[in-house]
Amino acid sequence: MTLASPEEYGRMLDAARLGSYAYPAINVTSTQTLNAALQGFAEAQSDGIIQVSVGGAAYLSGHRLQDRVAGSIAFARFASEVISQYKGITIALHTDHCAPQYLDEWVRPLLAYEKEQVQHGEAPLFQSHMWDGSTLPLDQNLATARELLADSQAAHTILELEIGAVGGEEDGQAAEINEKLYSSPADGLKVVEALGLGEQGKYMAAFTFGNVHGAYKPGVVKLRPELLGEIQDNTAQAVSAGQVSAASARAAAQAPQDKPFLLVFHGGSGSQPSEIAQAVRNGVVKMNIDTDTQYAFTRGVADHMFRNYDKVFKIDGEVGNKSQYDPRTWGREAENSMAARVIEACQQLGSAGRALR
């Protein structure tokens, strides 16, 4: 397993789009959850993406420090070292859901750090960063995205942006479950007008189609994965009709004709397999997975504690059993549980057994 170079990451995403599969993007908050994700990818023989959110980055620096940049840099350096010890698959590192209020204190400093790395002939710490301007008017969202795309190109990273609002709550960011959860084909053309189709820098677009963060019972979330196909088709038709710039048309020619965008699926926990499959067929190459892996990790801990209650607690003056309350014991069980969920995601998204190396 190796950390993806900028060129390798681009090839990963292009291969997924061409082959109609997607990579699980696993949110982690610790070295243990990182190791669980790596274990899952290795056992599934899948390339993949590991990401930290704004809250995860702060948590990685320690709850006393709460420094997102320090947490991100420390995480990326640790991850790079561990990843280098695996063989056979490639992993990219990503920062997830940077809302406007965190931009100047998190992603912009990271991009500046990475631009300096590139100037010194080094690879960037992260391979992609997400700008979440979904709370802003679309024109303002895209204006900031255009600035960040230029910075991303200079830092040899890929930008991800969100068009539309994902419902539910993640890391303190909340959005209602309503009609604002659905992007439109017209939004796709506005993205092309602002950012092109790769000629200004490679990017991924998270158009919303009813996505909701968190865990919900069946029937609450109304996904419309066919909307992604409509956005792709409308954009492809605009390219064919000469309604985009010549530079954008040339860039689009490098992608499958029916999939001009590299798409991202947010808020997928609890989605029906048929909905996930349709979204992937329509060009999703990255699917964020957080709620399900959080549960899997915690379930592994809970199972151990319930099975060994009299050993992990000093009941009635007894001494317990050190081997059972040793964090390495229940930590291994938590990692195995989470790794199994990562393997399931790789199989469902079609990336299992398709490592590029």
Structural description of this entry:
Helix 2 (31-44) packs parallel to helix 4 and helix 5 runs parallel beside helix 6. Strands 1, 2, 3, 4, 5, 6, 9, 10 and 11 form a nine-stranded parallel beta sheet that branches. Strands 7-8 form a two-stranded antiparallel sheet. By secondary structure, the protein is an alpha/beta fold. The longest helix has 23 residues, at 327-349. It is built from 14 helices and eleven strands. It starts with a strand and ends in an 8-residue tail after the last helix.
Concise synopsis of the structure shown:
By secondary structure, the chain is α/β, with parallel strands linked by helices. It has 14 helices and eleven strands.
The helicity comes to 40-55%
Number of strands: 11
The radius of gyration is: 20 Å
Dominant shape? globular
Reported for the largest beta sheet, the result is: 9 strands, parallel
Mean pLDDT across all amino acids: 93
